[in-house]
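B., you asked whether I could sanity-check this one before it goes into the benchmark set. Here's the sequence:
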Amino acid sequence: MDSSGLCCCEYIDLNQGRNHILACCCNCEDLDESVDKLLMGQTVSSSLRQNFLLTLEDRLRIPWPGGARKIRPGLLLALTLIPGSILIATINAYWTFTAFTSLYLLLFYLSKSLQKANFFVDCVIVTIITIFLIFEYYVVPFLEILIHENVIFFLLYVACIGCMLLAVKRSRQLKGRIDSSVRYCSMCEATVPLKSRHFVWIGTCVGEHNRVVYLLSQLLGILSLMYSANLTLTTICHPFRVYKTILLPDDCSEVYVQFEFALSFVNAVFSLSISALLLLNVLYELLRTLVCKRRCKSVLPNHKGELCSSNGSPEHHTSTKTPKSTRSCRHNITSAAEHHAPNPRLRHESDYLE
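And here's what the prediction gave me:
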């Protein structure tokens, strides 16, 4: 059906019919049938659940010129979880610990079961925006952060985001390349040289092509978050001097008295917890890279596409079989041609809000 002439609140639904976002709760046969079966004590089939989820995903839209645009369900969940956890944490110290612990445990569980979802990228985007907005609109004016201190935080924050985007861009440039001598990532749909792992939180693989900028983004994130947290805590808590102009917070017992203080304190604690996780991730990546290079030193491709022997000299690899000594290090190497065929189940994302 032609989508021209749609108003900002109209869209073409799954049945190729013209629909309106105000009718999102109307004519949902899959939902009605599912509720009827639940009330009658019957089992809801997997196909019925799948159809209901597809209908729900199709109707989650916002007004947009030229037709209503879809919103990813993961984005709505991230917008609920992260700001909601921060608001709950402003009640008192008990709720701060409970809210953040529950949030991290839930995200850890989902990261093991939903590795191919965009939900984790949405969580990172929402977290970046939330921390920045709270710091700029609450901490800076309310706690009177100096201009040069705010500029330093802003530059570190922007540099972190820039390196992160550069790491993602370099991975996307590999998409579509065929090379059976390196590891193939089914989630990126690309062959990744010296692949370490697929990092679901930014939706990209970490390999030789982007490892430096990836680690740099993590380090800049640690510096920016720790710097903003120290500025906040040394302002709302009673600080003590460590060395010359270096201050650390001492007594934070009165931070929950006023909402602005509580929100600033919780944002600082959230930033510190994220920086600690980033530090662990950097150490893990460095250790993983070091171990992999030691184990795979004899099979790493050099710049000419050849294999390096144990003494570092190039060695032509003529056999089509992988040596047994290198299979443990290259256990995930598969033919890229087998995976390069387009997956018909992958949905196009042009309909989603950029």
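One thing to flag: The mean pLDDT is 75. Otherwise nothing jumped out at me.
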